[in-house]
Amino acid sequence: MIAKTLDLTTQEINLLLPKSQDQIEAIEENKLLSENKITDGEKSVVFDVMQDHDAHIREHMKGKQTKAMRKHIELHYEAKKLAKQNPEFAMLSGNEQGQLATQEQSTPNQAPV
Ligand SMILES: [Zn+2]
Question: How far is the CA of 57 from the centre of ligand 1 (A)?
Answer without folding.
Answer: 7
